[in-house]
Amino acid sequence: MSTLTPFLAHLQIILGIAFTATFLSISILLCLLLCVLQFTPAIKHADTQASYRLWNRCFSISLLLTFAMTEPILLQLSALWPTIWNYSEGNVGLLLFIGTLLGMLTQLGFLRASLYEKYTLSSLKHRISSVLACISFLILIYLALLSSYWLIRPNIANFSSFFQEEIIIISLLIIASGSLPVGLIMLSANAWHARLAPLHQGNQLIQKIATSLTWFGVVLFTLFSLFIPYRLPEFWIWSIAQHGWISSLFFIGLICSLILITIISIYYQAIQERTVPINLITPYATVLALLTPACLFALLSDYVLTNNWAIGIYFEGIQLNNVLISLILFIIIYIVLMFAFISIIYQSAHKPLIERIHHKEDQ
Amino acid sequence: MTDILTHLANSLGTTIDAPDFWLPLVCYGLLLLTILGSVLLEGFDIGLGFLSFFFGHKRIMPLLYRWREINQFWLLFTLVLFICAFPKAWTYLAHMLYFPLTCIAIGSLCRIIGYELWLRADQASTHHFANLFRIGSVCTIFGYGWTLGQFCVSFQEELPYQIYAFMIALASFIVYALVGACWLAMRLRDDLQRQAITLAKYLVRFAALAIILDLAGLVLSNPGILNKWIAYTRLINFIYYWVIILIGFIVLEILIKRCLHYVHQADKRKHAILYSLPFATCLLLTVIILPGFAYSYFPFFVYGELSIWESISSIDTLSILWHSSLICLPIFALFVLYLYWGLWGENKQNQ
Q: CA-CA distance, B243 to A273, in Å (whole number)?
């Protein structure tokens, strides 16, 4: 019983972090992709605009999920490890305060039109706000990582220095790690759409981008899993011993992604001509897309937390039943939200998104 | 007031104009202001989430559209401000409030995502996401109510106190439903308005009882707080406070009955101000009641154990927070004003 309670407490926190990190990586990559797409000549075409609207919707849901998760993570961390805020002499709190204000500026200011689908693609205002949103979003990720770093390693953190190369590299890795889920979700939504109608020009462009992203993602995650032991020597031994099923899920996901992208690349032309029933595997591809990076994020976060916090997650006084109940509730919510996310993307892929979502206000 | 502050400063071995005395006090004020703002501006939203169980999501949820985007931030903003300014108090409270905080976390997540997915879903599947939003609202109300209950019983863990806190959590559903119903009465001019006013008429006395339950629990469960309210000449203030709250609820009931009387008339536009008054009275009562809670605990976060000055991590952090607030808060206040513009009065889109 004494070992089960901290294990469940750890599990509750790492699942929250993994869920958030996965959607964060999807959001930032889509934000950058959509911003770039706006400045290409292809955006003038109606089909590309339809694709833009679909992936803008995916981005908005993903970003809202990410932002919505910050409160539960803060509350979970605070409830399960109450002393966490005492180590950093208020610096982390200050960073969180600045980050919250920046988050509000990003969501309610720069991204307001995109998130609530009230934009005109050709307008300069929308393009400028997209660029500003990308910049503020990148700063936000940097601040979030810096505050995590200060929390995890208060003894060696330099609170006077806001600029840390290590954090910039990790930020870039988080953006790059979005390539596997974004690529696979795009591919599966396209295949789902291909079941009903031929892929139009916009979808074909997305198909190309998605194939490249998925290959990049598979290679990146493979390299990542191979090179992690150079930085964290005991990582895989520790992961398999502590979280065998999460490690297995990661490797199975990675292998399946590799097989899937190989099949899609071989039958690329046939998919476009709808002669291969690739859509049969698409729902599984989307689940894979979300689970594979989430597993790695979960393992990495637990490894870092366990090996850097001198005392581990504080759990004294919190009973096993309480942790178990809240863990079960959170797992149910994560599963519901993942399937809700997938179902909305598939629903949206069925028809062109020409209506603005606020039409529901006038009903 | 100055006497009390001077006395407090002297007891801490400092002076009233020393930053290590007034900075925590100012940040405490900011925190209270944020909590008050969130209760005033987000309360109706949470209440309507709960009421959508009875009035149906197709009518209720579109009404919330304009304020959902800003309402998502109140909890996060309050949490971060609390953590930033008073990390030690947060540490203590977070540990004491494990389940209420879990309820609030689940509620907040379900409300945000439920609403956003509801906006984007096909007509056939909107009810799933509406249910997510409703469940989130129930969890949020219960979590907030439970937290308030724990404060009212001064975090005492014995079973009778916990049952009392649980009763306060249940009673908070009535209060939130009343606020939501009064907002609907102000906002709509159709059959739903009549239903909302009728519901408010039934709820108002129970809401008054719920507030009495809260305040009585707060005063009676802790001798220190009781002493603070009734000792010496303060008893008269205590009586005034209760009388004002009582009058507030009587006025609210009269206003609701007047609204119900006029709601059957053909030209409802004549009484636009009257329909706004119950909601305004609810807000006014909140503005009166919340400072009472703050006064009861002042200058402590956990009565007799952890004061405002013991809860900070460093004066430097508070100083940065205060200076950044001086720049950010006026902008933030204007932005909030802009976003909440149109909250008051009738919903023109329903005409």
A: 78
A19 neighbors A72 (Cβ within 8 angstroms): no
Q: How far apart are the first and last CA of chain B?
A: 50
- Under the phi-then-psi rule, with left for phi > 0, alpha for psi from -120 to 50, and beta for the rest, what region is A243? beta
What is the reported pLDDT for A49? Answer: 87
Q: Say whether B301 sits in a helix, a strand or coil.
A: strand
> Which one of A72, A90, A322 has the shortest CB-CB distance to B105?
A72
- Chain B residue with CA closest to A89: the answer is B313
Determine the average pLDDT of the residues in A237-243. Answer: 89
ipTM of the complex: 0.85
* Three-state DSSP class for residue B302: strand
Q: A64, B349: Cβ pair inside 8 Å?
A: no
Residue of B31, B52, B76, B306 for testing the chain A interface, max A β-carbons within 10 Å: B76
CA nearest to A189, candidates A21, A24, A351: A351
Contact yes or no for A347 and B122 at CB 8 A:
yes
Q: What's the pLDDT tens digit per position in A273-284?
A: 666 666 666 777
Q: Shortest Cα distance from A100 to chain B (angstroms)?
A: 7
Pairs across A and B, CB distance < 8 A: 170
Nearest alpha-carbon partner for A111 in A172, A74, A50, A66: A66
State the virtual CA torsion across B203, B205, B206, B211 in degrees, nearest 10. Answer: 120
User: CA-to-CA distance for B182 and A186, rounded, in angstroms?
Assistant: 46
Query: Taking CA atoms, what residue in A is nearest to B124?
Result: A347
CA A298 vs CA A43, A183, B95: distances in Å: 37, 21, 24
Residues of B in contact with A93 (CB under 8 A): 80, 83-85, 87, 313, 317
Bond from prior residue into B299 cis (ω within 30 degrees of 0): yes
Residue B300, beta-bridge partner list? B307
Q: Which element (helix H / strand E) includes B306?
A: strand B306-307
Which uninterrupted H or E stretch holds A85?
none
Query: Among the residues of chain A, which ranges form H helices?
Result: 4-38, 46-80, 91-104, 112-115, 124-152, 165-177, 179-194, 201-231, 235-242, 244-266, 268-272, 282-308, 320-350
> Among A353, A338, A349, A356, which Cα is nearest to A62's?
A338
Please state the pTM of the whole predicted model. Answer: 0.89
Among A60, A362, A343, A186, which residue's Cα sits nearest to residue B124?
A343
**Does any CB of chain B come closer than 8 Å to the CB of residue A172?**
no
Secondary element (H or E) of residue B307: strand B306-307
Residue B295: the pLDDT is: 87
